[in-house]
Amino acid sequence: MMRKMTPLQTLGIVFCAIAVVWLTMQIAVFNTCLESKFIPANANYLCQKEQNYLLLRVHDLAKSEPTCTKLLKVLETNVNTLTDRPKIFVITPTFTRPVQKAELTRLSHTLLLVPNIHWIVIEDAAIKTDLVTNFLAKSQLKFTHLNVPTPHPMKMSQDDPSWLKPKGVLQRNAGLAWIRSHVSLQERGVVYFADDDNTYDLDIFEEMRYTHMVSVWPVGLVGGLMVERPLVKEGRVVGWNTVWKPDRPFPIDMAGFAVNVTLLLKHPEAGFSLSVPRGYQETRLLRDIVSVDQLEPKADNCTKVLVWHTRTEHPKLKQEWKLSIPSNVNIEV
Ligand code: UDP
Ligand code: MN
């Protein structure tokens, strides 16, 4: 049954509809204008700024009105067909082990289906391996290949008694450092930390693409639950269903958020650290750049799972030890 709308809501929707049509026209006219030779050199930048500002205002308005959110999707589709969509910088730490090439193959095939993406792959190694170097060269993706080794197993913090190898911390920081020295403040884009063993629905990339500050969504198969997710009320994050260490300020997995690239450029200190307890890396980064009430819930107000924290089983290789010459001599696996 249709719900009855208040005059204010009707007005909001009418405004949204006008804004969508007007912005689309504006973008179309601007594109035609760009073809002409008589425009100032900074016109593109100025217009992008103006568009971003308008989009932001419409987003504000749309927060409380589902019909408006749908109209906004129409606008985003229009913008996508008419202009370059914001870029997604995917930061992936990776390390040498038997399943590495299989994991990278699977992830790269997902990323090949995502428009305007830049894959930053950081090896946990003192020198770049031939395997990853050759793999990326033939991947057909736009990529950057970096490396930084993780120090030996260490205590995660003063109050954490366990000795663990921190996973991907220095590698993600190296990815951020690369972005900070190669991406300009004018770039429209978003940064996502995609581990090499997770499973990604293509829709999650379009959800995160228009992130103003930090967007969040559910992650399947993590934290000892079927799904961990932000709890959303009237378009805002009001809590979490997390059971593991629920007192963390941002009790969320690395796969469950994306950050606007400009926000990261404006906070050069924001990053990960070797000296925080397990589970606090996400908080370590996010606490410096955003507050919980500013988070932008995606995936239909965090009601859909579009990424899974899958983990690959260690392969059984015990027959290998019976061989005098390993089975993979002269053949890359
Ligand atoms: N990783 C790494 N060095 C390591 C262990 C992991 O660079 O010694 C990478 C790994 O390839 C993955 C990310 O760090 O992209 C997170 O590691 P993992 O998937 O093992 O973490 P978990 O699934 O336990 O959260
Ligand atoms: Mn993992």
UniProtKB/TrEMBL annotation:
Catalysis: reaction(s) = 3-O-(beta-D-galactosyl-(1->3)-beta-D-galactosyl-(1->4)-beta-D-xylosyl)-L-seryl-[protein] + UDP-alpha-D-glucuronate = 3-O-(beta-D-GlcA-(1->3)-beta-D-Gal-(1->3)-beta-D-Gal-(1->4)-beta-D-Xyl)-L-seryl-[protein] + UDP + H(+)
Q: What do the Gene Ontology cellular component annotations say?
A: Golgi membrane
Which stretch is the leader sequence? none
Q: Which GO terms describe its biological process?
A: carbohydrate metabolic process; chondroitin sulfate proteoglycan biosynthetic process
- For the site labelled Interaction with galactose moiety of substrate glycoprotein, the residues are E228, Q319
Q: Which UniProt keywords apply?
A: Glycoprotein, Golgi apparatus, Manganese, Membrane, Metal-binding, Signal-anchor, Transferase, Transmembrane, Transmembrane helix
Query: Can you tell me which family this protein belongs to?
Result: Belongs to the glycosyltransferase 43 family.
UniProt name for this protein: Galactosylgalactosylxylosylprotein 3-beta-glucuronosyltransferase
Q: Which source organism?
A: Oedothorax gibbosus
